[in-house]
Design a protein that fits this description.
Elements (H helix, E strand, L loop, with lengths): L1 H21 L9 E2 L2 E2 L3 H8 L10 E2 L7 E7 L5 E6 L11 E6 L9 E2 L18 H8 L4 E6 L2 E8 L6 H6 L4 E8 L2 E9 L3
Parallel strand pairs: 4-7
Antiparallel strand pairs: 1-2, 3-4, 4-5, 5-6, 6-11, 8-9, 9-10, 10-11
Length: 197
């Protein structure tokens, strides 16, 4: 009987370990901020509760996401903003892209406050204020491109080979991008998530 119990415990451990292996991410990928995960409505509900229905969300103006519904949150000090973007077809409380940036106007009534959150930090410990060297040390150089534009430097990580990417296949999305903007070598804004097609 002891032997059967031991074998059952071992089988449970192995199955749990295999599930963990199933979610190993490429080193350049971020999938969470403050334990809210991309395309995971359970983590969103746990941290944020029920979000405003998508039909009531304002349209967002960020590069090529100008017409995507979104919801914004301040951190406790109202110095940072987290924007969670919905894509057409996303279920309620399910986000496909996340953007973190400095707050310019801390009195916007359309931005919700997360009073328990001091700073918006990703699951890989990326936050506003780190250097480009810190970022590359965390995310690596694979899939990385860099560009300069006046006083801003942009580091991008792109994964777009759906056929050979277990990560993209797991999330059933054709492309992932992380974009990190630096001024004077300090991270001032970043976004990551899946590219809408």
């Amino acid at each position: 009987m002891k032997r059967i119990s031991l074998i059952l415990i071992l089988l449970i451990f192995i199955s749990l370990f295999c599930e963990e292996l199933d979610i190993i991410l490429p080193s350049c990928v971020n999938i969470s901020v403050i334990n809210i995960f991309l395309n995971d409505e359970n983590s969103s509900k746990q941290i944020l509760g029920n979000i405003i229905p998508i039909s009531e969300l304002a349209q967002f103006d960020y590069d090529d996401y100008a017409t995507m519904p979104h919801v914004n949150f301040y951190n406790k000090q109202k110095t940072q903003i987290l924007t969670l973007i919905f894509y057409p077809g996303d279920p309620k409380n399910n986000f496909s892209k996340m953007i973190i940036r400095k707050s310019i106007n801390s009195s916007d009534d359309q931005i919700h406050s997360l009073n328990s959150i001091n700073f918006f930090i990703t699951g890989k410990s990326i936050e506003l204020g780190i250097t480009k060297e810190d970022l590359v040390e965390i995310l690596g150089s694979k899939n990385k491109t860099e560009s300069k534009n006046e006083n801003m430097e942009i580091v991008k990580y792109l994964i777009s080979d759906f056929k050979n990417s277990d990560f993209l296949q797991k999330y059933n999305n054709p492309e992932y991008i992380g974009e990190y903007k630096f001024v004077n070598n300090i991270l001032i804004e970043f976004a990551f998530g899946f590219i809408y097609h």
